[in-house]
Amino acid sequence: METLELRTPRREALVRITPALTDLIAAKGWQDGAVVVFCPHTTAGLTVNEDADPDVATDMVMAMNRLIPREAGYRHAEGNSDAHVKTTLVGPSLTLIVSSGRLQLGTWQGVYLCEWDGPRTRKVWVQWLRG
């Protein structure tokens, strides 16, 4: 298992991790198989989404805040219940195909860490599955 570590910039942000995954795949010489990408945090998750226009990431944060407001009478005492709900909706993991040493994503797709309770230092675990 490999670990990526990154610092998120603010309380809520979609942080592009595609380059870090691409670099890791190249450095390890992984060719044909898949990577399982897992975020071991209860207030951050992972998603694949639009990677050509950075406004999409901003819009995703805005939409999540409309759906799950920060203050909504939650019972959890830490004040970050909205982050837990957002993480549950996004999910903690992805399985991504690697073919001929390249991460297989659609033309406009990228991989993102979804931070809902930052800024923090986050880990992302990556496990290679041979094809």
Number of strands: 8
Number of helices: 3
Sequence of secondary-structure elements: EEHEEHHEEEE
The CATH superfamily label reads: YjbQ-like
Radius of gyration: 15 Å
Q: Distance between termini?
A: 16 Å
Q: Which structural class do the helices and strands define?
A: alpha+beta
Shape: elongated
Protein name: Secondary thiamine-phosphate synthase enzyme
Pfam family, one: YjbQ
Organism: Solidesulfovibrio magneticus (strain ATCC 700980 / DSM 13731 / RS-1) (Desulfovibrio magneticus)
InterPro entries: UPF0047_YjbQ-like, YjbQ-like_sf
State the gist of this model:
With 131 residues, the chain is an alpha+beta fold.
Describe this protein's structure.
It comes from Solidesulfovibrio magneticus (strain ATCC 700980 / DSM 13731 / RS-1) (Desulfovibrio magneticus). The structure is a single chain. The two termini are 16 Å apart. The strands form 2 sheets. The chain has a 5-stranded antiparallel sheet with strand order 1-8-3-5-6, with helices on one face. It has a 3-stranded antiparallel sheet with strand order 2-7-4. It has helices spanning 18-28, 55-67, 81-90, and strands at residues 2-7, 13-16, 33-38, 44-50, 93-99, 102-103, 109-115, 121-130. The longest helix has 13 residues, at 55-67. It is α+β, with helices and mostly antiparallel strands and 131 residues long.
Write the layout of secondary structure elements.
Elements: E1 2-7, E2 13-16, H1 18-28, E3 33-38, E4 44-50, H2 55-67, H3 81-90, E5 93-99, E6 102-103, E7 109-115, E8 121-130
Antiparallel strand pairs: 1-8, 2-7, 3-5, 3-8, 4-7, 5-6
